[in-house]
Amino acid sequence: MSNLVFSNVRHQYDGINSVDIEYLEVGTGKLVCLLGPSGCGKSTTLRLAAGLESPLEGEISIGGEVMANEKIFVGPEDRRVGLMFQDYALFPHLTVADNVAFGLSHLGGEERRARAEAMLETVGMASSAQKYPHMLSGGEQQRVALARALAPSPRIMLMDEPFSGLDAVLRNRLRDETLALLKEMGTTVLMVTHDPEEALRMADEIVLMRAGKIVQQGPGGELYNRPVDAFVASFLGDVNRVPARQNGEFFETDLGPVPATAALNGESVTNILIRPEAIRFLPVVNPDAPTGEVVLSRNLGAYSLVDVQFESGMRVTVRVASMYQPNLGESCSLTLNLGGVFIFPEPGNGIYVDKPISNAN
Predict the structure, then answer these.
(1) Which of 80, 140, 195, 253 has the CA that lies 20 to 30 A from 308?
(2) Quick one: pLDDT at residue 68?
(3) What is the pLDDT of residue 354?
(4) Which 8-state DSSP code applies to residue 327?
């Protein structure tokens, strides 16, 4: 069952397409993240869903009701959507309780107060009901903003970079708490983020955008492990770009041969993409494996990032458990896990070394 659907929606600023979405669907009870670089159209997409912008073409529906097309436009006040922005937009002259009750004007006074109190209790802010926003920390303001957005029981929550203003430790904790609360309440959510880790951590589905268009949509694991092109592969996580030369059924690289299990239809390949975790680090030199020298080693706590350079001058970055962090100048051997190796013709769609071409997206 779908809560939000975009069909052939196009929007322009100054005659240039800012959004050009053929189809976007957010299922009921799902948390979907719009992900992409700055200027890709993700915030405009959220504004179109909220009714803050009107599409030039196409149709937007929420809960099976048309919100916008060539004949209909329903304003934001009548869409029953919850809005939460990165600056929280709390009213500084209202108490926390009054901020939460602000959108409940359709209810009687007692019912409004009871609903506001219940939502503050839900987000753990009941004891701060009579405080003003300036008396709260950033994390507390975020919780109040969430309570205010959820209080009217919206059909869908629209969140624009809601955690970006928080420090890293608090951000991780509040993301997890917010996700648990939204799932418990069965809330449908469309959230904008530019942070791939946040999208992978929170979303049931990720919608990756570029230049106003959807490049790939699906579960985070699918985008990470089966990207449709080099942009998706590199945006979702770090990759090494390794020079490659096709030799029959293999690509020759400094990391060893990589099977070319799909026909490339005559298209050239000059680099293959390899995730750092797909390169296995062997601290002891193995004469049967590619060997290089450690030229950079950075301890990041749980793991270390190690740069290894080969005689050709080519360097790759490898993730190594911190307890096995090598010293500069040490020799080491490397092997490959082909599940993290991607081959993309130039130009063309993704071809995976461990999947036949009929299964490639």
Answers:
(1) 195
(2) 97
(3) 41
(4) P
